[in-house]
Write a structure and sequence with these properties.
By secondary structure, the chain is mostly beta strands. The protein contains two helices and 26 strands. The strands form five sheets. A 16-stranded antiparallel sheet has the order 6-7-8-9-10-11-12-15-16-17-18-22-23-24-25-26, with no helix packed on it. A three-stranded mixed sheet has the order 3-5-4. Strand 11 and strand 12 form a beta hairpin. The longest helix is centred in the first third of the chain and has 12 residues. About 2% of the residues have low confidence.
Length: 442
């Protein structure tokens, strides 16, 4: 594009006229990739939306940068534009690989629930440099034994199709004398979509598990829920997802929308329909502050044609409170304070709302956050009440450690006593709860 101005003087006034002549649109001649010391070049190229022979568009280049970042293998993606004399342009994507993105741990751990146990975990998110993911988890202790092996291929048949599969075994002996055991396998398939836009994806995962949940309160039936103590679980989980966030771990802007219906009843002994809808939003504020909003709503229903007969394990009803093994996060309260294993009859409806204001001390590595959570579970959709939510506030830290992964430390202050149902007749009894979690960012 060429531009020149023409000036006309009228006394003390100057008229300026700009004459603009557009040149031909620049065509992308070639695209080079440099700096990928581990990741194969095809893994990067298949994420791009700009190609040689296309007209150059800034939006396509920035979308390519965003999609490469979403792989979560690189700490920096820097595109460089080089114009040529013939009107074409060359692009060079400079890649900086993250160091030690695989996670390996070997040692011993202690918790109030599981007591002492030996642990070993291995997670390789860029297996063989082809974008594949391999996970191995082993925990052996006096009260718990857990083994899991999973593999994910993100680009099957040279198309944006994901294939996954795994096997697992989990056994917990509770201090009350109860025990929980399950083992089986799962397999899944997913696909990126181009409609309604290319931020959408769909997926389906099938699992076949044998479950044995021995509890002194087994075979409970009330409120349309039959707590199935043991049996064969055959279920399909469907997923519809839209994700346009700019970063995979600590997004600065964008949103994530998920709908996940889980259907149990394709054979086996369990029959239920469990659906969780979630929506996360990220808004950049002044300086480096980011405001995040995280919201979940869940329902458990009977399958069509089965009347009001819900057959489900106490681990699969909706639960909230704390951060461990829950559907809805409400920090400031003990794990599974609401619904779940503690009060399964109130696990048919769930609402959890959370807001966080975070600030990076070290970009993509160390973050501080202040948060406010609220939520509850109910025995039916009709009982859901926005005035019946349990609030909690606090602050937390997220730390991304090479070879260990993402660790979270939260201190929550519950503002209402969950042992009472009527918030208007009983004064709140605040208490402080410490929460530790792995693999969850803000």
């Amino acid at each position: 594009m060429q531009a020149k101005d023409k000036q006309t003087f009228r006394g003390d006034t100057v008229d300026v006229t700009f004459e603009i002549n557009e040149s031909k649109p620049a065509i992308v001649r070639k695209i080079a990739i440099s700096g990928n010391t581990k990741t194969q070049e095809k893994v990067i190229r298949r994420e791009m939306t700009i190609f040689p022979g296309q007209k150059y568009k800034q939006s396509l280049m920035m979308r390519s940068v965003r999609d490469i970042y979403q792989l979560n293998f690189f700490s920096n993606v820097k595109p460089d534009l080089n114009p040529n004399d013939d009107g074409t342009v060359d692009l060079d994507f400079g890649i900086t690989e993250k160091e030690n993105i695989g996670q390996f741990s070997l040692g011993a751990a202690y918790s109030q629930v599981e007591q002492f146990m030996g642990t070993m975990s291995l997670s390789i998110p860029n297996f063989r440099g082809q974008g594949e993911k391999l996970d191995l988890n082993l925990q052996l202790g006096q009260l718990r034994q857990q083994i899991g092996l999973n593999f994910t291929e993100p680009w099957a048949f040279n198309s944006p199709t994901t294939l996954s599969g795994g096997i697992s075994y989990d056994y917990i002996q509770w201090s009350t004398g109860d025990r929980t055991m399950e083992y089986g396998f799962n397999g899944g398939v997913g696909r990126r979509l181009r409609w309604p836009d290319d931020y959408f994806s769909v997926g389906a995962n099938y699992s076949l598990m044998w479950k044995d949940d021995y509890d002194k309160r087994t075979d409970i039936y009330s409120n349309g829920i039959h707590l199935q103590p043991r049996g064969l679980l055959s279920k399909v989980r469907l997923t519809l997802r839209r994700d346009d966030t700019d970063m995979p771990t600590f997004p600065n802007e964008g949103s994530i929308f998920d709908v996940e219906p889980e259907i149990a009843g394709l054979g086996g002994d369990y029959r239920y329909l469990k659906t969780i809808t979630s929506c996360d939003w990220y808004f950049p504020l002044f300086w480096k502050f980011v405001l995040g909003s995280h919201n979940k709503f869940g329902l458990v229903n009977a399958l069509p044609g089965t009347g009001n007969d819900i057959r489900i394990s106490r681990w699969d009803v909706l639960s909230a409170g704390g951060v461990w093994y829950i559907d809805g996060q409400i920090r400031g309260y003990t794990d599974q304070s609401f619904g779940g294993r503690v009060d399964p009859q109130r696990g048919k409806a769930m609402l959890a709302l959370s807001s966080e204001l975070r600030f990076p001390l070290l970009e993509q590595t160390l973050y501080l956050s202040g948060f406010a959570d609220m939520g509850n579970t109910w025995s039916s959709l009709q009982e859901v009440n926005m005035m019946d939510l349990y609030p909690g506030v606090g602050f937390g830290v997220r730390l991304l450690v090479p070879m260990l992964g993402l660790m979270g430390f939260d201190f929550g202050y519950g503002l209402r006593d969950p042992s009472h149902d009527n918030r208007f007749n009983v004064a709140p009894k605040p208490h402080l709860e410490f929460h530790f979690q792995m693999g969850k960012g803000y």
